[in-house]
């Protein structure tokens, strides 16, 4: 199997930026695309900061950090012309099924043999792949976790039409990036969010029903279950709107109301308290 030397990452947000950084650090040439110039500048700034910190901590030499930065091309464009020059495409745009379907239809036209991976956390791979028509066998789920430079897992999800070759190349890329690929099937929430989100949702119920204060719920789960963050802190980190969205996918996809988002979680979202990204969710964060 030919080595993957260059990738295109579409979407320069937290996930896309993290994926680009990890790939470049692993020696892979990366082009990261985002139609919003602000997003590209922010992504470049974050890479500079995180790589400088890695050098300060002695985890990387200055030469390696410079080489990693030199492997990343930042493109503030929506045009997909560059995808045909790469070996592999990873999509990390907004979590909206229609927007992703439209993009995959365009990607299918713009590519011939490249793997078209999506970093979706909850949208059906089979549904996204259907938009790619004849290229559906090249579409796969490649679900990274936040913060991407730290988290080891890549959940690899095959759609109905995904070929064995696509799966093997995706596993090879994840491994080359220093991650551990683990397979899951294309069912709502895959494995990670099928298990994690109900846990987070239950923590909101525990808070709503007065079982304990939010800080105490988190402390109990951290010290009692060895979780690095309590479930409510983690919900803020993920984004409370994202948590509601994933619970909706589970409830609708599994046709079971036990997955409905907790009313208190929905209320915080309605109030605009989305977590870290708005400075306030369950907890308050300084600037
Ligand atoms: N980017 C890069 N590196 C980061 C980082 C970031 N955004 N945030 C933290 N780090 C690094 C730090 O530099 C530090 O590195 P070092 O050990 O080399 O010095 C290391 O991570 C630990 O960081 P801190 O000491 O600042 O803080 P913590 O020890 O509290 O760790 C944490 C922070 C890694 C975020 C840890 O709390 C954690 O693992 N939390 C759980 C994260 C998690 O569950 N993520 C999955 C979310 S679900 C998801 O993404 C799926 C989606 O579909 C919803």
Describe, in plain words, how this protein is organized in 3D.
By secondary structure, the chain is of the alpha/beta class. The protein folds into 2 domains: 6-185, Rossmann fold (3-Layer(aba) Sandwich), CATH 3.40.50.720; 192-277, N-(1-d-carboxylethyl)-l-norvaline Dehydrogenase, domain 2 (Orthogonal Bundle), CATH 1.10.1040.10. The chain is built from 11 helices and 8 strands. A hairpin with an 8-residue loop joins strand 6 and strand 7 (153-158). Residues 50, 57, 59, 121, 145-147, 149-151, 192-193, 228-229, 234, 238 line the site of 3-hydroxybutanoyl-coenzyme A (3HC). 3-hydroxybutanoyl-coenzyme A binds next to helix 7 and helix 9.
Low-confidence stretches: none
Q: Nearest-angstrom radius of gyration?
A: 19 Å
Sheet/helix structural class: alpha/beta
CATH fold node name of the largest domain: Rossmann fold
CATH class membership of the largest domain: Alpha Beta
What is the CATH superfamily of the largest domain?
Answer: NAD(P)-binding Rossmann-like Domain
Which molecules other than protein and nucleic acid are bound?
A: 3-hydroxybutanoyl-coenzyme A
Order of helices and strands, N to C? EHEHHEEHEHEEHEHHHHH
What's the number of domains?
2
Shape: globular
> Ends: how far apart?
47 Å
The whole-number mean of residue pLDDT values reads 96
How many distinct helices?
11
Strand order of the largest sheet: 3-2-1-4-5-6-7-8
Strand-residue proportion: 5-15%
CATH architecture of the largest domain: 3-Layer(aba) Sandwich
